TrEMBL record:
This is Amidophosphoribosyltransferase. The lineage of its organism: Bacteria, Bacillati, Actinomycetota, Actinomycetes, Micrococcales. The keyword 4Fe-4S applies. The active site is at C23 (nucleophile). InterPro entries: GATase_2_dom (IPR017932), Ntn_hydrolases_N (IPR029055), PRTase-like (IPR029057), PRTase_dom (IPR000836), PurF (IPR005854), PurF_N (IPR035584). Keywords: 4Fe-4S, Glutamine amidotransferase, Glycosyltransferase, Iron, Iron-sulfur, Magnesium, Metal-binding, Purine biosynthesis, Transferase. It is an enzyme of class 2 (transferase). It holds the Pfam family GATase_6.
Amino acid sequence: MARADGRLTHELNPQDKGPQDACGVFGVWAPGEDVAKLAYFGLYALQHRGQESAGIAASNGRQILVFRDMGLVSQVFDEASLETLQGHIAVGHCRYSTTGGSTWENAQPTLGPTYDGTVALGHNGNLTNTADLRDMVAERQAAGTGPAGPISTNDTSLVTALLAGDADTTLTQSALDLFPKLRGAYSLVFMDENTLYAARDPQGVRPLVLGRLERGWVVASESAALDIVGASMVREVEPGEMIAIDEDGLRTYQFAPKKRAGCVFEYVYLARPDTTINGEVVHSARVEMGRHLAREHPVDADLVIPTPESGTPAAVGYAEESGIPFGQGLVKNAYVGRTFIQPSQTIRQLGIRLKLNPLKEMIAGKRLVVVDDSIVRGNTQRAVVRMLREAGAAEIHVRISSPPIKWPCFYGIDFASRAELIANGLENDDICASLGADTLGYISIDGMIESTRQERRQLCTACFTGEYPIDLPAEDRLGKNLLELPF
């Protein structure tokens, strides 16, 4: 394993927010079905994975049409736009940017030419050798065999361009030649006019699953999306595997040896609680993390409350293990999500109150255990502690169902830069004082991993340990805005 040093900062987005995943992908091959609407509902189930833009591409066997725009899935599509996407294959995508800015040009699926048709591609993850891929595209352009003119500034567009291949190479063969050259995390769903494809990096960092419809197949980032569209779970797409589906059936190719290192943070926060990853239901793992927390960091208290919604399963586990009653001390506004209307200065100063408000009658005079999934900069927890104090809490004991985050992620999660991570350089007591809490307890790495029921060697824990399972390039060949710089 590679270990990052202090020079790797990889600053992504300085806004005050928690960890954000890169994207959600969905693909369907189903002759006779309304594939665009299946993709729409599949993306709806995956909305938590990306809220900046959304898109769907569909093929009728002769041509591929794509519709994409900025915003939530429900904002981008309506009946009229979905009606234009006719066919038997569809690929869908909802995006959170990690390489390339949040712009319409970077929305997916991307569309590119091949020698005998078109390819549409959606990507969940983040590539670490983007600069090398950019150089490969530039070489092809110089030789007259690459795409003409500039391409959009994300790693997905580079992959799309490199899949063009040459006159003697099929899309299948171009993909099998290209994917071993990619480094980083990638779960890909793509298609040409007649075939649906799915592929996953050799480490299987991001989830990707295969499902069966009565008259077709589905691939998706999470098993919960299969449930929404009525598909039965078949299996995961294996690390280093590519699947192709067309009228001749399903074919599978192992383009690289498995080196499984699934992201442990999918279990902690990213995935939906009703999703299954590598045989484990995410909700069960989170409840078990709460039980471990209670054993590792017990406290005398009157009430266990979660920071909704992400802290709820662990709070349930903490309450069950400790015997302290569980309660809802904070109310979340379900309608606060991505918005294009910026708040006024007065509203901005209220900060977290846009999303959370305390139930004073539950809190006043109580000794509280407040359970959350993670601390990044600490701003959210600091605001929550302040609200609870103002609501009359007697004591506030913060418990976190993941270890301290000390390192940036290069595989598809938008954390803060290393300098901004509150756990980098501060001891536990200092963080506790910064939050204004009475006590602070993080789950141990061993407790977190044991809760997932996965083998430690098959998990990526880089954001907690600094041990990166995929080697990183030099600092000047990393960064969100790398492709926006001149070649």
